[in-house]
Amino acid sequence: MKWAAVLFGLVALSECLHNIPLIKGKTARQALQEQGLWEEYRSRYPYNPMLKFDPSFAVGNQPMTNNADLSYYGVISIGTPPQSFKVIFDTGSYNLWVPSTLCNSKACDNHAKFNPQKSSTFKSTSKPLSIYYGTGSMTGVLGYDTVQVGGIIITDQVFGLSQTEAPIMAYMQADGILGLAFPVPSGATPVFDNMMTKGLVSQDLFSVYLSSSVEGSMVTFGGLDSSYYTGDIKWIPLSHEVFWQISMESITINGYTVACSGGCQAIVDTGTSFIVGPISDITNLNAWVGAYTDTQGDAIVSCSNIDKMPDLNFNINGHSFTISASAYVRQSNYGCSTGFGVSDAQLWILGDVFIRQYYTIFDRTSQMVGLAKSV
């Protein structure tokens, strides 16, 4: 396509790219396991991966969930002089928020906290912000300040300053969240939307590469980096323009449809660790790959059987995207389990388990998601 040729010509110019290295850190689950607190914690606070996409929270508030497996974060700064924060770049939410000196929760004690009194460019508001978790909530207030992301300086960016935070945040290495979903009516203007409207990026797209290693992951604003993928990019039109939602035809194993029969909807989400789907479909998937469910609800597999387990094929827009067992099985000191999560909704989430295998481009101009095999 002609527009694609123009796109590749532009992204070849390295000066157009703004890269933010991501670190794959310890997850909250791992921190809780090390302290012997995980079983108690998850029994008290069940994981609800779909809460952040609840349409009843689409205006004014940014719904989120207590994902104990989030691990990728990058560093941004806020204020003058800059104050640095580790944030999760989340395509499944739209607000930017960080802990602040206004916060009186224990979860803020071991994180960097924004001090508005130390920034000469900070502008306060009285507008409240509430972010809902499966474990509780984050409450705070909105303010404006200069935000720096990968060398891009955004003046008068609205962001949230936390005043209370849910207990899960005490165990997360990241300080806050930078949302990369679409803006909603009456909501705060997202960071990337300000980048676009202020002409701070050469192209209205960003791209994500997730590595399995501690270092090497990257989010790139204003273009894509061909060193992170191989082969052609497959472009998939959005089916809904609030989150990065697409249509899937089916999920197959060895040619047999095992999930998403007759088609389904999926959100490509860097802020979800697993591949999440309806209970019946995930139960069938786990059965096909030879997993059994333990008393805690985890789908356990034998670590010695990974090489014998089948590939999954996600059939999207006429293309097949393959996820091997080495990619969808989580290996840890506590054994092996599948990286699938369940929800009560019919919506799927293609989280980090999927994105680690496919370099992902989020294109606001064409309203498409691009996928190419990661190197």
UniProtKB/TrEMBL annotation:
Coiled coil: none annotated. Pfam families: A1_Propeptide, Asp. GO terms for molecular function: aspartic-type endopeptidase activity. Residues 72-372 form the Peptidase A1 domain. Disulfide bonds join 103-108, 260-264, 303-336. The keyword Ligase does not apply. Gene3D superfamilies: 2.60.40.1960, 6.10.140.60, Acid Proteases. Keywords: Aspartyl protease, Digestion, Disulfide bond, Hydrolase, Protease, Signal. Residues 1-16 form the signal peptide. The active site is at 90, 269. It comes from the Eukaryota. Its EC number is 3.4.23.1. It is an enzyme of class 3 (hydrolase). InterPro entries: Aspartic_peptidase_A1, Aspartic_peptidase_AS, Aspartic_peptidase_N, PEPTIDASE_A1, Peptidase_aspartic_dom_sf. One of its GO terms (biological process) is digestion. Shows particularly broad specificity; although bonds involving phenylalanine and leucine are preferred, many others are also cleaved to some extent. Belongs to the peptidase A1 family. This is pepsin A.
